[in-house]
Amino acid sequence: MTAVMPTDLEIARSARLGPIEMVAADMGIDPRFVEPYGRNVAKIRLEALEELEKRPPARYVVVTAMTPTPLGEGKTTVTVGLGQGFRYLGKRAVVAIRQPSMGPTFGIKGGAAGGGYSQVVPMESLNLHLTGDMHAVTAAHNLLAAVVDSHLFRRSNLDLDLAQVTWRRVLDVNDRALRNIVVGLGARVDGIPRQAGFDITPASEVMAILALATSLEDLRARMGRIVVGPNRDGEPVTAEDLRAAGAMTVIMRDAVKPNLLQTLEGTPVLVHAGPFANIAHGNSSVLADRIGIRAGDILLTEAGFGADMGAERFFNLKCRVSGMTPDAALIVVTVRALKAHSGRHRIVAGQALPAALLEENPDDVHAGSDNLLRHIEIVRMHGVTPVVAINAFPSDHPSELEACREIAEKAGVRSAIARPHSQGGKGCTELAEAVLEAAEEPSTFKFLYPDDMPLRRKIEEIAERVYGAEGGVAYSVTASRQLAEMERLGYGGFPLCVAKTNLSLSADPMLTGAPSDWMLPVREVRAAAGAGFIVPICGDIRLMPGLGSAPALERIDLDEEGNIVGLS
User: Fold this and answer.
1) pTM of the shown model
2) Strand partners, 170
């Protein structure tokens, strides 16, 4: 009889963890730079960088994936398992990941601590509040929103154009009813009525700034450059103009410090910032990577979703800001994702996998290979060596796993089967060896486009070379006008953060594989002047998710002893 594997929460609770100060000490971080939040969580003061940066840098590896199914392909689980696996090779790894948003945690996706025997712990803390960074972002963002409405009410001399205010509010909850609202209803003293709305906190520009800031001083400067809308002469009004940037930075003073946790096997994990990768740049913070790269032999930093999403932003946004360049890129694949991209199976979040998908069929795996090959090419076009991590599930058949290897081998890429969920670090040693080999190869990293390329051409470069949109780009009248205005305002040198679906290389979530005969629709363009990038919004992308018919929150509760149950 097959033994039943414990739940993630049961595994996490059974772990014996060392004091977080010992984890920091293993990284070479002096105790005076460690601020404990209980026994197993701490913040790292930024003053630690002055000492850490005297050391040589570690190998720098970004973890990405092929286009995922709605269920995800276990990228965080592989990242954590690989970090643990390096210990078996005598190497010290540090892992850097984003903080989970409580919107998806209580929605369909669940938490983001990894899974099985490759988890970040304490998983309850990680998935629920942690040290309050997400709430600080929410508060700082909404403080600016309150200031905007106060200026409108008092008709200040900034002459902010009521009809063109772009600064919405945010909340870390999936709530579709808040996407479009009217504020200022009631008596005259209750404000100026106007249409407004909420985005989810990970979509906030304040979150993007937290992830890209290189110091507290840089955070303050970026806060001041946030644009909330134009005045009646068409000139941008900033948070500095509104005299709100200082107070916003005060709220963020502790949030700017990266959080330190550990894996089940004691590997250090830096958790900091949480921008989504379909509507934001999808990477953890520059500051976490700057600390982690001087605190071990290997730094594994995770980028959200596929190489067309988080990894493209990692290469062209994060690396531009940090000045750090990767030595290798890990592409996580699964049998089920390759089968899904054959176009013969449909996976729906919240529903059981189709029975036909679980049947042995290596031909379906090969039929979905175009998607993986495109992601390999995306990594290579940036001059980075790719490695394919085959995340093996119990339902996979040996012939299907071998088919994954054959696809990678034909593409001339190293690959390894990993079993992080069931075996932890031991299940990732072969993968760790492959990553080490790849990271030793000479790096020829390059950006996809230069800073001085016009915004339209940057969009087209990503659409054609990364997404494979041979039909080019279709701009709405609104988007065309906005792009022209951004060039006029001096934002033409900004890099891009394209908001599109994560479920396809295209802008249509139903298109599987590697479609080419399509056109990227750009319906709107926003400037994140404080963060320092432009956001073309492509297709039907919503910045505030909604709850599904059977959200995870329905299974989450407290037992009679006050312990959390149902969290995954």
Assistant:
1) 0.95
2) 199
Question: Is the separation of the CB atoms in 302 and 75 below 8 Å?
Answer: yes
Q: How far apart are alpha carbons 427 and 441 in whole angstroms?
A: 24
Please provide the size of the chain in residues. 568
DSSP conformation letters of 294-333: TSSSEEEEEBSSSIIIIIHHIIIIIHHHH----SEEEEEE
Q: What's the per-residue H, E or C state across 175-204?
A: CHHHCCEEECCCCHHHCCCEEECEEEHHHC
Which helix (DSSP H) or strand (DSSP E) does residue 119 occupy? strand 118-121
Alpha-carbon span 392 to 73, nearest angstrom:
10
Give the count of beta carbons closer than 10 Å to the beta carbon of residue 126: 25
**Residue range 249-304, pLDDT digits in tens:** 999 999 999 999 999 999 999 999 999 988 899 999 999 999 999 999 999 999 99
The answer to whether 70 touches 353, Cβ cutoff 8 Å, is no
pLDDT for residue 2: 52
Q: Specify whether the CB–CB gap between 536 and 479 falls below 8 A.
A: yes
166, 171, 173, 228: which is closest to 195 by C-alpha?
166
Q: How far is CA 42 from CA 34, 133, 250, in A?
A: 6, 12, 20
Structural domains of the chain in order of their starting residue, each with its CATH number: 8-127+256-439 (3.40.50.300), 133-251 (3.30.1510.10), 455-538 (3.10.410.10)
Residue with tokens 């486009």: 449
Chain centroid to CA 282? 3
Residues of the chain with pLDDT under 70: 1-3
Of 303, 216, 199, 304, the closest CA to residue 528 belongs to: 199
Beta bridge partners of 222: none
47 token code pair: 């003053």
Residue 568: predicted pLDDT: 80
DSSP alpha helices (H): ranges in 67-164? 75-85, 102-106, 123-127, 133-154
Nearest residue to 279 via CA among 177, 180, 204? 204
Contact 302, 369 (CB under 8 A): no
